[in-house]
UniProtKB/TrEMBL annotation:
SUPFAM superfamilies: Prefoldin
Pfam families: Prefoldin_2 (PF01920)
Xref: PANTHER family: PREFOLDIN SUBUNIT 6
UniProt entry keywords in alphabetical sequence: Chaperone, Coiled coil
Family designation: Belongs to the prefoldin subunit beta family.
Official protein name in the record: Prefoldin beta subunit
Keyword Coiled coil: yes
Domain of life where this protein originates: Eukaryota
InterPro entries with a match to the protein in the record: PFD_beta-like, Prefoldin
Source organism of the structure: Blattamonas nauphoetae
The UniProt record lists the keyword Chaperone: yes
Coiled coil: 11-38, 75-109
Amino acid sequence: MALPSDKQAQVEELLKKVKECQKELTNIQTNRQKLITQLSEVELAKKEMDLTKEGDEIYKLTGTVLLPQNRDEALMMLTKTQEHLKTDLQRLEDLAAQTEKRGEEIRQQIVALQ
């Protein structure tokens, strides 16, 4: 059964919106994977730091140079970085849920038009 041209145009417009949602979800997933990788690196660095003792020499790789760093400062920076990454990860997960919900609503509109 063919749809009238105005309904067909509406369906095509809604399909474009669904594709946009899918693109957004792909981008969100890519960014989420990057954050997960960074978070696991930070957690690994914190575990390594836990193996050190007070007074041990700690070095940070900056470019191609190893620079000495205070152990407490390094732990504090790793903890802050971990918190920021977790916050960003939660924000992306919320955004993904909203985008999925929006895509589902658009799909329902398409079904209603057909």
